[in-house]
Amino acid sequence: MKQLVIKAFGDADQLELADVPAVALEPGQVRVRMHFAGVNPIDAKTRAGLGWGAEAVKDRLPWSPGFELMGSVAEAAPGVTAFQPGDRVFGMVAGGGYSQQLVVAADSLLPVPAGVSDEMAAGLPLAGATAWQGLTDHGGLKAGERVLISAAAGGVGHLAVQLAKSLGAVVVALTSRANHDFLRQLGADEILDYRDPAAMAALAPVDLLFDLVGGTSGESLLSHVKPDGRVITVPTITAPQVIAAAEARGLRAAGMLRRTDNVQLASLIAMVADGRLKVDISRVFELAEGPAAHRQIETGHTRGKVLLRG
Ligand SMILES: NC(=O)c1ccc[n+]([C@@H]2O[C@H](COP(=O)([O-])OP(=O)(O)OC[C@H]3O[C@@H](n4cnc5c(N)ncnc54)[C@H](OP(=O)(O)O)[C@@H]3O)[C@@H](O)[C@H]2O)c1
Question: Residue 244: CB partners within 8 Å, gap ≥ 6?
Fold first, then answer.
């Protein structure tokens, strides 16, 4: 069984395809043959040795990235009744998604509804959870409020635009000019090029800033938040910097760490199934092309989601 691993932190070329022995199933587990695995910035940051992700895995290298996958059940442990071999499943995993096969607890997975593509199911869990939890649990977004979403065309952002619209918010989306049509089709109300100072200066204040870029970009957007507004800054490494700058302006600000919630994920995939939520897949790489997939995500200019094919 092939798995992409790193033996040391470093650049994208640290990712290598290793032969890994298949492990036996324990009670309650299933073996999933991966069809597609999502590639997220956290995978590349952890591979590079940055942030909480690297701190968590530094003592257990080699490590295989990948926190979300979609595949088919190859084998179920005796007593597992939720899934049969051949069933299409998806969900969040604790790393190792970049593997041809992965053994996981059956109750950590959800079925892929008929009519939902393998690719959309693979790209939904991590970005979908982050978008939903950021806007609702952390951001408290209400119908009629104005929300400013930076990196609106990216993995989290393009889902956040659609989810904020579904909540009845007025969505102001920031992206480069090349992605304006893309965001218009997803329902954004106002679309601004963040590199256009005149457009940014004309932006009316917002109730909630959903900052998906962080750092100096996040700081530069604080002047567009109403005096009683809120800020949720999502990139964890720069969160303290953005929160401190927001609080210095008297704004309520917080960071976040997405959590796994399969009740929430079931609601999100139901939205995909009935056409209310679209997961845009801009690039698919073969598993052996892991380094190229990481270089793509590290451009910081990916539209929608990037996947690896098993
Ligand atoms: N805390 C958590 O639990 C959590 C969970 C998920 C993600 N994250 C973090 O959240 C961030 C976003 O994740 P993601 O998966 O959405 O990333 P992504 O898909 O790589 O985001 C790419 C997007 O960023 C846009 N962008 C780049 N610079 C920008 C700027 N200065 N202003 C506005 N947009 C800009 C690009 O748009 P253009 O090409 O149009 O420039 C591109 O569409 C990452 O830092 C990630 O690590 C944190």
Answer: none
Residue whose structure tokens are 């007025």 = 170
Residue 212 lies in a domain: yes
* Type of residue found at 100: Q
CATH of the domain at 293: 3.90.180.10
Structural domains of the chain, count: 2
Coil, strand, or helix at residue 127?
A: helix
* pLDDT given for residue 56 in this prediction: 95
List the one residue out of 191, 245, 240, 248 whose CA is nearest residue 221: 245
Question: Domain limits at 204?
Answer: 126-254
Based on the fold, state whether residues 130 and 248 are members of the same structural domain. Answer: yes
- Verify cis geometry, omega within 30 degrees of 0, for the bond prior to 78: no
**Tell me: the pLDDT tens digits for 44-85?**
999 999 999 999 999 999 999 999 999 999 999 999 999 999
Q: Which atom of ligand 1 is nearest to the CA of 127?
A: 6
Residue nearest ligand 1's atom 36 by CA? 301
pLDDT at residue number 162: 98
Is residue 70 a part of any domain in this protein? Answer: yes
Segment 120-134, tens digit of pLDDT: 999 999 999 999 999
CA 21 from centre of chain: 29
How far, in Å, is the centroid of ligand 1 from the Cα of 155?
7
Which residues have any ligand 1 atom within 6 Å of their CB?
A: 40-42, 127, 130, 150-151, 153-157, 174-176, 179, 194, 212-213, 217, 234-236, 256-258, 297, 300-303
What is the Å distance from ligand 1's center to 225 Cα?
A: 20
